[in-house]
Amino acid sequence: xxxxxxAERMAARRAELDELEEQLVKPLDQVRAERDELAVxxxxxxxxxxxxxxxxxxxxxxxxxxxxxxxxxVPHREGGMDQTVLPPEYQKILAVVRQAGAQVATRAxxxxxxxxxxxxxxxxxxxxxxxxxxxxxxxxxxxxxxxTTRPWPALLPxxxxxxxxxxxxxxxxxxx
Length: 176
Description:
The protein has helices spanning 2-58, 88-100, 106-113, 124-135, 158-169, and strands at 64-66, 69-71, 139-141, 147-149. The chain has five helices and four strands, in the order αββαααββα. 58% of the residues lie in helices and 7% in strands. The longest helix is centred in the first third of the chain and has 57 residues, at 2-58. The relative contact order is 0.10. It starts with a helix and ends in a 7-residue tail after the last helix. By secondary structure, it is mostly helical. A hairpin with a 2-residue loop joins strand 1 and strand 2. The strands form two sheets. It has a two-stranded antiparallel ribbon with strand order 1-2. Strands 3-4 form a two-stranded antiparallel sheet.
């Protein structure tokens, strides 16, 4: 009887160990799968960073001729870049948005600049300039078409920030 009792205990312990092994294998497989996904995400991120760096290098703005006049394009904002690289009119716009300290509408910027905001069509050129500043990384355009300043210095160009946000929201590792 002692032998059969020992055999039963050994069989029961073997079953417990098999169950414990099964419980440990599932999380380990999940960890390995997530680690593999993270490695893929890192490779994609590095490729995108190289692509953005290449685009930044090739997209360096240069003065152009329009109707025989030299026109200075608004440069893309990069780390360490001061607002003094902007044309004076754009510097004034940026200063007004900064002084607002919060999200500001085009009309409010126009009023601060002394524009005739009651005249139809006077704000469209200003709205275009605000949008250009947002596209080049100097301002941030909110969904309700208000503008605010960006943190200084920008760590990612707007396209990269948009990509990173969509990556986190698509169920990628770290976005859970």
